[in-house]
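User: Hi! I'm working on a homework problem where we have to compare a predicted structure to a textbook description. Could you give me the structure for the chain below?
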Amino acid sequence: MNVKVEAKISVSLATKQYMSVTYLSSVINFLNKLRYFEENYEELNDDKARNDYYSYSISSIILSIAFFESTINEFFDDISHNIRLSSINNQEGILNEQYINTVKFMKDENLFRRSGLKMFEKYNIALKLGGKSPISKEEIISRELKILVELRNELVHADPEWIWLDENEKLQKSKTLEFENKFKNKFNTNPYVKGGPFFPNRCIGYGCAKWAISTVVNYSDEFFKRMELVPRYEHMKNELSTLI
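Assistant: Happy to help. Predicted structure tokens:
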């Protein structure tokens, strides 16, 4: 008696989308467009050009923060799933079994999603777990990050105000003057706007967008340097450097 046996093998396939790379790629695309606008702004000085310029600038600022947050979230997720750990620079064995198990526990307990946990604190948690020095709030990259987050929050949670230009006491207390004092020496202002309040009119532009992505990449670079690891976005930094 012949018995026919059929074996079926089920294979599950999955892919993982790294949004940090997507966000950074989008910012690079916007920066290319912004540079073109600034190089040709006399010929493109019309309402549509100004609106496009403004849109690309705001998008770059918001996506810079999205890149920053995604980078550390993906770092923890990779570790908890042992993804790519064998191929990255881990010469000192920082990402050892104890490190991996601790991250897994923290993710399982949703500790990285704890209310009130700030983005930079996630980076410092990763450093401390590896026995590395955290990034101090007093370091330049931390101070730059702080005011970038303030700018992003103002754009995302916009709360307009009346600016009484003829009343000096009220002007001194205005949001636009506060932002001008923080940002006026950090980047070139919007060439399409010659007057009016600093924020958002003259503040948002190619200069601000370049400063925003430089701020978060510098902070992330410092994190990976201290961890002695190679960031996933390393291959994009040459192209980015030509724009900032």
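For your comparison, note the following. Residues 19-157+210-241 form one domain. The chain has one domain: 19-157+210-241. Good luck with the assignment!
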